[in-house]
Amino acid sequence: MNARKHFLIVNLIAGGGRCKEEFPRVKAELDRRGLDYDLHFTNEPLEAVDVAQMVIEAGFTHVVAMGGDGTVNEVANGLVKVGSSLPLAVIPAGSGNDFVRMMGIPTDPIRAIDLLESGTPRTVDLGYVVGDRYFVNGLGVGIDAQVARDVLKMNPRFRGTAAYLYAALKEVLHFKAFPVTLSGEGFEETYDLLSLGITNGKYAGGGFKLAPEASADDGLIDVAAIEDFPIPERLIRLLQVRGGNHLKLARVHYRQTPSVSIASSARLIAHIDGEVYRLPGEEFTVEAAPKALHVMTP
After folding, report:
1. Residue 275 catalytic?
2. What is the pLDDT of residues 107-133, one digit of tens each?
3. CATH number assigned to the domain covering 6-125
4. For a Cys staple, 211 with which of 145, 148, 222, 276, CB 3.0–4.6 Å?
5. What is the CATH number of domain 138-291?
6. Residue of 29, 275, 282, 283 with catalytic role
7. pLDDT, tens only, 149-168
8. Would you list the domain boundaries of the chain?
C-alpha cells in the first residue's frame, strides 16, 4: 500500500480568524508526526474548488480541508465535479463546524489530525442545487440564511456557537416570513415560512439540530419547512429547533425525498454550508447526490 501523501487547502480567514490562530499549532503537529504533506493558502472565494481539482493528478493520496464548513464545501465541489475518488480529510477551524459534527470528526484540530494517519474512508451523499453547486451539509433559505450573513459581519473575536445564537436571537425579533411552494414526487405545498432547510446533515447554524432524522448515506435529502410563529412564540420554537425537538409541531413540515423543487415570488436569501449563496433563480431544484464523496472518519 502506498504511503499517504496529503495536500492541505487552508483558509486562514475561516472562523473569523480562528484558522489563522490554529494553523501554527497544526503545522507543528504535522511536522512532529513526520506526515508527508504540501499546502496551499486560499485567498479568494471559491479558490479551493480550483485548487482541489489541480491536486488530483499530482500524486497526492488525500486532500485535507482546513477551515470551516464553507472551506469543506469548496474542496468537495472541486473533487466531485471532476469525478475524483480521493478521500477528503477535515481539520476543523471554522465557526459552525456542522459537517464534522455530523461525521463524528473531532472538533479539536489536533485530534482531527489523527484521522490523517488512522481514519477510515466513508462514502457519503451530497446535496446538489441542480446546475450549480453541491453542498456537504445544507442549503438554508430564510432566517437561518440571514443569521449566517449576520455572523459573517460580526467582530472576529465573537464567533462559534455563541455568535450563531446571538444572531438567531436578534433575527427572531425582526425577520419577516416569505412565501414558498415546495413540490416533488407526490407532493406540492405552499407555505409562509421563517426557515427552509434542505439538508444532507443533521445540523445547521453551529449546532442547531434542524434535520434530526438526516443521514449522510441514505440517498435522500431532508426538507425542513418551518412556518411563521408570533414573535413571542418564536424564541420558544428556536430553542426547540436547537435541540431537534420541533418535528411534531403543527407548523413544521418535514420530509425525506430524492429531490425537491422550490419556487417563490419573494426575493429569497440563502446560505450554502454557512456561506452566503446566490440562488440560481426564482425556481430551482435540489436533489440528493448519492455516494458522491469519500470522507476520512473515525
Report:
1. yes
2. 999 999 999 999 999 999 999 999 999
3. 3.40.50.10330
4. 222
5. 2.60.200.40
6. 275
7. 887 777 766 666 778 778 88
8. 6-125, 138-291
